[in-house]
User: Fold Acid phosphatase from Asparagus officinalis.
Amino acid sequence: MMQLIRPIWEFLILILANLLSQAPAMKMPGFYPYPMPYYTSYCLSWRVGVEANNVRYFHTVPPQCVTYIENYMLGGQYNSDVGVVIQQIFAYLDETVPSDDGKDAWIFDVDDTCLSNVMYYGNKRFGGVPYDPMSFKSWAERGMCPAIPAVLGLYRRLLQSGYKVFLITGRDEVTLRLSTTQNLFMQGFLGYEKLIMRNPLYRGMGAAMFKSSMRKQLVDEGYRIRGNIGDQWSDLMGDCSGDRTFKLPNPMYFVP
Amino acid sequence: MMQLIRPIWEFLILILANLLSQAPAMKMPGFYPYPMPYYTSYCLSWRVGVEANNVRYFHTVPPQCVTYIENYMLGGQYNSDVGVVIQQIFAYLDETVPSDDGKDAWIFDVDDTCLSNVMYYGNKRFGGVPYDPMSFKSWAERGMCPAIPAVLGLYRRLLQSGYKVFLITGRDEVTLRLSTTQNLFMQGFLGYEKLIMRNPLYRGMGAAMFKSSMRKQLVDEGYRIRGNIGDQWSDLMGDCSGDRTFKLPNPMYFVP
Assistant:
């Protein structure tokens, strides 16, 4: 008889211990009975680190994340992320009206802001190989970059609302002005106030400093920078960055 | 005979058309034959938007994202994201040695930087209900917030390396100093230079401005702020933000 009762007791104690142990577990992070399994991903953490400006100065996408970044860029999540940024900007624009002196301005970066280089990076393992300036120049000279549709929508809304739009790009003034203006025109980016490119005086200067200097000149001319959108933190940092800045996703490369 | 040949021809033409159509499709973003399906998520886009400082001034987590955020916080991805931030800081520290004048400083925020409030927010639908200052004060008075282990590791490494650590928090000096110092002590945050809390003079001031003022005072005292870590952009923006800033994830609430 005792041989039978002991296992039953042990079983009951186990159940009781289990029930009791759930009470503190309910309050312990990491042991919380969450309703769905959530699979952790180092590559997602890395990508969020890039967007939050924690991960900097990387030369290539980590090798184990190349396929992840490819899926991210082409599988829809990148477009979803861009969409949420533009949605936030539209909500911000709903709250403000530009004054009628023509001095309310917005700044746009060009590469991977107005124009997409995803087709180019598709041949560069989505950032899995180091940046190759000559090869990128050949690509840019072709003037075949497609518009990022959601950004084009924003651009048109800003012009319709009466903002002045300035495009500021690190692309070289001397070699790439013609192909860039043609590319922008063909993709529907018409009516901007000025396309500011990197002239020989600014060669070798970091993007953040170059772009700050250009914005400073606009502010000195009396423009009020109401917003500033780019895919790199170097588009958005430094002096005269604007009343609000918006970071578009780009886990493929880092421009200091 | 013709009746038999026509379907064969049509079939061959279809195959040829299909083969030809794959060439441009290979180069079209969105039609790229990516190796794995990637499921898009609005809530992931929203969360990345918070981390990138695009999504601001939100009062609650969007209702459709409450379960997503719960899974994110408790399912491991949050811990993974924190881990990557700390990894980046360790890599940064490997490159620098503090000077021996004792003036190299690091700034830490307290809530959801040193100490976790996930247990508290577990009862607040992980940010799905509006912030309740009275209820949060009761929680903070209990002094029961657990350390975020990876941040504690960073904290210890900084002290060992010879940095001075300053904790700057928006918690109220008068009502919460005792419970906060006890909580920090119990969780292993010992040896900091100063715990700077919000005294009555700064009540009602935005966190970014309050924290900037406190950092400015440290810089005026001769400290060089080598790094600054917090879970809110308002911890990291404004004057004297530090040589590098690090944003810890927090999609549960927004402090302006």
